[in-house]
Amino acid sequence: MKRNYIILGIAALLLAACGGGEGGGFFSSNSFDMDEAKAEKVVSISDEENAPKCSISLQVKYVKGDDERAHNINNAIQQRLFMFDSLKMQQAVDSFAHFYTSEYKKNMAPLYREDRGDELKRAWYEYTYEVTTDTREGKDDCLVYIIDLDMYEGGAHGIRQQLVMNFDAKTGRQITYDDLFAQGYSYRLREMLLDELKRQTETNSLDELHAKDYLLTMDIYAPQNFILGDDEITFIYNPYEIAPYAKGNTELTLSYGKLKEIMK
């Protein structure tokens, strides 16, 4: 719909993949001096009383310090969340909150003036954007960084996404599949993920998966969001990736024992 064609472009950027990483040893996430940058901002679409509003809430953990490792991690977080880099995290958070709410008012206000006589359309302009973040210790003490994004920009429902990054301890660079798996891993990994999806959904074929609304328009693939646990890797598919919105997140877990044949 016309009301959210501008800001949805921002959302699309946030879900794009980030840059690669390097192998290396791991550090304990407990050794990090973590801090948190926050921003809360509410902007009305017009000066009218009880006009629709855009509310944004950001809570972003980051690594304190000026060394290369902290720089690499914080830059990756900024790029994934805001498409910025090399800013102080509080500056990045404040800048994005200002940018997002300013774009809302600039682009949505003219459309609202056309629609404000229609009470049924008022809800289209009540925008919300919320980011919360958390960290956990992963395999060999790697740092697992988890972003929960919850946004509403008009339409039948909001958008919820879980975005995950795993950071190498020695370099602070993001760990990718190429760091974990041997060359040529892709086909076998997809096979394993498909088998696990069948097991989890109690199906035996693609036709049965289709009947349960999985993989209707795509083949199975390894998602960019994954958690390196102590004993397994959890692969996270957000709504619409391999199943409809109503299914919510789909999580497929494969043990390192099962993955051993394709791991470096």
Secondary-structure topology with pairs:
Elements: H1 7-14, E1 34-44, E2 53-63, H2 68-82, H3 89-115, E3 127-137, E4 143-152, E5 159-167, H4 177-180, H5 185-201, H6 206-211, E6 226-228, E7 232-237, E8 250-255, H7 256-259
Quickly describe the structure:
The chain has 264 residues and is of the alpha+beta class.
Explain this structure to me?
The protein has helices at residues 7-14, 68-82, 89-115, 177-180, 185-201, 206-211, 256-259; strands at residues 34-44, 53-63, 127-137, 143-152, 159-167, 226-228, 232-237, 250-255. With 264 residues, the chain is α+β, with helices and mostly antiparallel strands. It has a 5-stranded mixed sheet with strand order 1-2-3-4-5, covered by helices on one side. Strands 6-7-8 form a 3-stranded antiparallel sheet. The N and C termini lie far apart (47 Å).
Oligomer: single chain
Strand adjacency order, main sheet: 1-2-3-4-5
* Order of SSEs: HEEHHEEEHHHEEEH
Q: What is the helical fraction, as a range of percent? A: 25-40%
Low confidence ranges: 1-30
Distance between the termini: 47 Å
What is the CA-atom radius of gyration, in angstroms? 21 Å
| Total strand segments | 8
Q: Give average pLDDT, whole number.
A: 89
Q: Which class best fits the helix and strand makeup?
A: alpha+beta
